[in-house]
Amino acid sequence: MTMNHIESQRQENIKRNREQLTQLGIYLTPSASSPPLAKGPPAKKRKLDHPLPPSRSSARIASTPAKPSYVSENEAEDWRHSRKKGSRVGPKKVKEPVIKQEAVAIAPIPAKDIESIRAGWITWESNASPPIRDDDSTFHFQDQSSFTPNKSPEELIREGCFGGSYFRPLYSRRLGITVTDDYRQLPSTWYAGLDVSQFLTSPTYDTEINKYKVSSGQSIEEWEAAGWINHTYDVRGWFQWYCRFYMGRRCEDDERQISRWRKCVGETGRWRRMLLKKYVSMGIKEVFDDGEDEEGRDVSPVMHQTCHHWAYEVRQGDLERFWNAGK
Fold first, then answer.
1. What would the pLDDT profile of 239-250 be if each residue is shown by its tens digit?
2. What are phi and psi of 171, to 5 degrees?
3. Which stretches of the chain score pLDDT less than 50?
4. How far apart are CA 181 and CA 10, in angstroms?
5. What is the C-alpha to C-alpha distance for residues 308 and 163, in angstroms, rounded to an integer?
6. pTM, rounded to two decimals
7. Which residues contact 209 (CB under 8 A, 6 or more apart)?
8. pLDDT of res. 298
9. How many CB atoms within 10 Å of residue 62?
10. Residue 209: which region, alpha, beta or left (left: phi > 0; alpha: psi -120 to 50)?
11. Distant-in-sequence, close-in-space partners of 217: CB < 8 Å, separation ≥ 6
């Protein structure tokens, strides 16, 4: 059988099958104007560099207040302060932490509510027993056993905490008001004999008056922007809360603030452990009084000052336990 004969039969079979399919109504004749089918893989969809926002939005979601982030302010401390001494910096760039700005988007508080909040700052009553201080100078609060600072608010003020600027005039973006002179709500004995303009209301952070002679931490404005401030109780944040807690006030924000303290300088707190590890890495087994002994300042003044802001100071017993147990 020749190839011509085979091809002829194939064409006849195709023609016959096409006629049968046409009679059954399942054969479609290609349009002469139809473009030829493209061969090869399908075209890829272009990826948008910036996704488009949804065309519709939920009124319920839009009206929901942004949830503030209560990440510890010391989590945003400059990474250079926590980097091990002598470690090699490779070509990979280390990103500095970014402060979350969720709370900034919250709508302003109505004026009538602001007046109610302001009244709450001064009308509270002391309803807890004063703390007891043990032989290691650690404070113990009867109703909060896990909160054990070893510096009193008065000691912190007299040692220049926050560079003397903590109670400076403060404009709150959240409340839309400027807060001034609230240091007067503290017992006057805490700052008796001090220059208030230098130790409490200084417009700038003065490193010369704080105990370790360095700048540490962030401004109250940054704390507010990051959502670390609960305005209902303490417009200035952590230290103002500690002053009032020490004076006997108890409020719904206590658990949050104590939790933040534990994470920073509690038994397993990040900054406390970093500082104790620094002593061990330097082979130092005795705690110096950094306010008097020049040698003591060699052990990370920035870490010391950070812990000092959180009402904790390394004591000899802490260091010995860390040397013995490694934690």
1. 999 999 999 999
2. -90, 120
3. 27-28, 30-40, 42-106, 290-292, 296-297
4. 102
5. 12
6. 0.67
7. 160, 163, 164, 198, 199
8. 73
9. 7
10. alpha
11. 73, 74, 77, 162, 305, 306, 309
Amino acid residing at 90: G
Question: What integer pLDDT is reported at residue 2 of this predicted model?
Answer: 59
CA distance linking residue 239 with residue 162, whole number of Å: 10
**Whether 260 contacts 70, CB under 8 Å:** yes
What is the C-alpha to C-alpha distance for residues 204 and 208, in angstroms, rounded to an integer?
11
pLDDT of the residue at 25: 58
* Token pair 């104790």: residue: 276
The single-letter DSSP state of residue 134 is -
Q: And the tokens for 266? A: 């509690």
Residue 1: what pLDDT?
A: 54
Cβ contacts of 287 within 8 Å, gap of 6 or more: 279, 296, 314, 315, 316, 318, 319
Contact 109, 103 (CB under 8 A): no
pLDDT at 101 (0 to 100)? 35
- Run of H or E including 133: strand 132-133
